[in-house]
From TrEMBL:
It is found in: Cytoplasm. The keyword Cell division does not apply. Residues 382-443 form the TRAM domain. Its EC number is 2.8.4.3. Residues 147-379 form the Radical SAM core domain. InterPro entries: Elp3/MiaA/NifB-like_rSAM (IPR006638), Methylthiotransferase (IPR005839), Methylthiotransferase_CS (IPR020612), Methylthiotransferase_N (IPR013848), Methylthiotransferase_N_sf (IPR038135), MiaB_methiolase (IPR006463), rSAM (IPR007197), rSAM_horseshoe (IPR023404). PANTHER family: CDK5 REGULATORY SUBUNIT-ASSOCIATED PROTEIN 1, MITOCHONDRIAL TRNA METHYLTHIOTRANSFERASE CDK5RAP1. GO terms for cellular component: cytosol. Keywords: 4Fe-4S, Cytoplasm, Iron, Iron-sulfur, Metal-binding, S-adenosyl-L-methionine, Transferase, tRNA processing. SUPFAM superfamilies: Radical SAM enzymes. It comes from the Bacteria. This is tRNA-2-methylthio-N(6)-dimethylallyladenosine synthase. It comes from Qipengyuania oceanensis. Belongs to the methylthiotransferase family. MiaB subfamily.
Length: 447
């Protein structure tokens, strides 16, 4: 039986990318504005929102196992929660979810979640509610103000993607590229800082395609936006993710050299080191043009930490082509990276290409690639020992007096002392691990 009383408590579970984390926070704010409270830790919620990811098959399948687990627990306790499926699986498989998982009451796509309160009313009245419309940007105007948040906050500046990489579902699930207006972003950044943020990460599937009109009516791009936001009093750090090599212009390269609040970290997915594979992926860059671009960024900001995304086992990828990816990794020396086995996504051109690669081959390639990436990440951390830098205190550690924060290069840093979340402290990096560093406090920096 699906519940028919209005929910008093909610839980939002977000999977996948940071865009989903942002959407999850906004849905939580929307539900809180309706008088629904977050379910206390460890207690069942009356409403569970599964904010899903469709980028790879594993991520998409997780939704169905989660729904099964939640309704089984509900049956055992005699209290079925209302289940809403949001995010990219909702967008891509709306009707299919309702058919395959009868326990679900609401299916809402990433561009329609501002209508969640009306959908809840319908669900409580016993109707199933599906909304996978893609109205451009309407949701942002319909959402409530930002509430108290942590020191590091996300701000979605752009959604959707026009690049149509042949393996990727994003252009279908998130739709065409849309930039949020300049003025709205300046206002939201101010509100985030007023609510406690010291660092803002500008988000989008392709933030480098952001464009807008500034207060003088001039057309500006991502760099112009970064420079304006850097003037926000109380904001200490700006980051952005994700960008596409084809859209990175001189201005954003220069901003890394001349805007101190823009952190020395660049996540620039390459996907493969083979020009033939890159062409088949419709990536519009070559290994060489990518490396040249990185050199220009490094010239502007020599201490820049680099990060990237990789796919192994794209259809037709030969051993020699995979070796080219390993060579590119060796050349770049990434500080951090994300790597995945190719996963055929229904409706994308690569899903029907010849020469799909066997699972065992993909497993082996991923293992080798990740070994190289882990080695480089550890090397980057080891090379950081002896550096002094500012760390933004984000949360308490496991032990009393221990804190965890992020270095400018997005490394996790542990240290001890008497601090508060949101403090910026000067730290000397004294010891490196594969995934984090230990720091010794020099002094707290004035806000
Ligand atoms: N299979 C595997 N990885 C994928 N990505 C996107 N689509 C797929 C797919 N079909 C990866 C890319 C992208 C990151 C967000 O996810 O590396 O940059
Ligand atoms: Fe997907 Fe990124 Fe390519 Fe856009 S640029 S299609 S989001 S992989």
């Amino acid at each position: 039986m699906k519940p028919t009383t209005p929910p008093k408590t909610y839980r939002v579970k977000s999977f996948g990318c940071q865009m989903n984390v942002y959407d999850g926070e906004r849905m939580a704010e929307l539900l809180a504005a309706q008088g629904i409270a977050p379910a206390p830790e460890g207690e069942d919620a009356d409403l569970v929102v599964l904010n899903t990811c469709h980028i790879r098959e594993k991520a998409a399948e997780k939704v169905y196992s989660d729904i099964g687990r939640i309704s089984k627990a509900g049956a055992a306790s005699g209290k079925q929660p209302l289940i809403a499926v949001a995010g990219c699986v909702a967008q891509a498989e709306g009707e299919e979810i309702m058919a395959r998982a009868p326990a679900v009451s609401i299916v809402v796509g990433p561009q329609a979640y501002h209508r969640l309160p009306e959908m809840l009313d319908r669900a409580v009245a016993g109707e199933s509610a599906t909304d996978t419309d893609m109205p451009p940007i309407a949701k942002f105007d319909a959402l409530p103000d930002r509430r108290k948040i942590g020191p590091s906050a996300f701000l979605t500046i752009q959604e959707g993607c026009d690049k149509f990489c042949t393996y990727c579902v994003v252009p279908y699930t998130r739709g065409a590229e849309i930039s949020r207006p300049f003025r709205d972003l300046v206002t939201e950044a101010r509100k985030l800082v007023d609510a406690g943020a010291r660092e803002i990460t500008l988000l989008g599937q392709n933030v480098s395609a952001w464009s807008g009109e500034n207060e003088k009516g001039h057309r500006i791009g991502l760099a112009g936006l970064v420079r304006t936001l850097a003037e926000t009093d109380g904001l200490a750090r700006i980051r952005y993710t994700t960008s596409h090599p084809a859209d990175m212009d001189e201005d954003i390269i220069a901003a890394h050299g001349d805007t101190p609040k823009l952190m020395p970290y660049l996540h620039l997915p390459v996907q493969s080191g083979s020009d033939r594979v890159l062409k088949a992926m419709n990536r519009s860059h070559t290994a060489e043009s990518y490396l040249e671009l990185l050199e220009r960024f490094r010239a502007a900001r020599p201490d820049l930490a680099l990060s990237g995304d990789f796919i192994v086992g794209f259809p037709g990828e030969t051993d020699a082509e995979f070796e080219e990816t390993l060579r590119l990794v060796d050349t770049v020396g990434y500080a951090q990276a994300f790597s995945f086995k190719y996963s055929p996504r229904p409706g994308t051109p690569a899903a029907t290409m010849d020469d799909q690669i066997a699972k065992e081959v993909m497993d082996e390639r991923l293992q080798r690639l990740q070994a190289a990436l882990n080695r480089d990440q550890f090397a980057f951390n080891k090379a950081s020992v002896g550096r002094t830098c500012q760390v933004l205190v984000e949360r308490r550690g496991k032990h009393p007096g221990q804190w965890l924060g992020k270095s400018p290069w997005l490394q996790s840093v542990w240290f001890e002392g008497d601090y508060a979340i949101g403090d910026l402290v000067d730290v000397e990096l004294v010891e490196a691990g594969p995934n984090s560093l230990a720091g010794r406090i020099l002094q707290r920096v004035a806000a």
